[in-house]
Design a protein that fits this description.
Elements (H helix, E strand, L loop, with lengths): L1 E3 L5 E3 L7 H61 L5 H11 L6 E2 L2 H9 L25 E6 L5 E12 L30 E10 L2 E13 L1
Antiparallel strand pairs: 1-2, 3-4, 4-5, 5-6, 6-7
């Protein structure tokens, strides 16, 4: 195609495409860099999520472990020694479970929560604070559990509800018959104590992962 110039001479169009390869290369490099950054970001976020999930699972296991220790060891142990005065019971409890360093907020309140129904609790023992306060804010007992790789976990436990039953704490079996009775044995139906317990665990020095669970325990 010729275009007439001012002088009437035809002007030839200059078609220089030597720089298109450089532009294309730069665009491809930019796209590749973007894809690389996206991939690195996905790997980094995945590693973060994996680490967070691992920390949460270990903290959750610590919370379950604290609940198991409380309901299967400490509560029965306290019930067996419930006739002791508060100071002696606390000393005995600390001596028996020295490995987990239990910290009892108020031994009198803990005794009341173990042996009496929720409606009998005093205000100072948390009768009006059930629900809104988490175990970490108002624990009955704090357990210090040792994990692997020198990791330690704090498990806060709080009894939020108690329903009294007819569980015998004397160790005697109240059944049998006298000589004037028929030899059949009458055993009363067992109605256990029911405890609703909340536990909250966290890794010592790390508040990024906490686990809060609730258990119902029958004794």
């Amino acid at each position: 195609m010729n275009i007439q110039g001012i002088s009437g001479e035809p002007v030839k169009m200059i078609r220089n495409e030597k720089g298109i390869a450089l532009v294309t290369t730069l665009m491809l490099m930019l796209i590749g860099l973007g894809l690389t950054l996206c991939l690195l970001n996905m790997i980094t976020e995945g590693a973060k999520m994996s680490g967070t999930n691992k920390r949460y699972k270990t903290t959750l296991e610590a919370s379950y472990g604290g609940a198991e220790i409380l309901v299967k060891d400490i509560v029965p142990y306290m019930l067996q020694n419930i006739d002791l005065d508060s100071s002696s019971l606390l000393d005995k409890l600390n001596s028996a479970y020295l490995a987990i360093l239990p910290e009892v907020a108020d031994i009198n309140c803990l005794k009341a929560k173990i042996t009496t129904g929720t409606t009998s609790w005093s205000t100072s023992c948390g009768a009006t604070a059930i629900g809104p306060l988490t175990p970490a804010n108002s624990p009955d007992i704090t357990l210090n559990l040792q994990g692997t790789n020198n990791n330690t976990f704090l498990v806060y436990a709080k009894i939020v509800s108690t329903k009294t039953g007819n569980t015998s704490m004397s160790g005697l079996t109240l059944e049998g018959s006298s000589t004037s009775e028929t030899p059949s044995t009458i055993t009363p139906q067992h109605s256990p104590y029911l405890y609703t317990i909340e536990t909250q665990g966290k890794r010592t020095g790390d508040i990024s992962a906490t686990a809060h669970i609730e258990v119902l325990y029958a004794y």
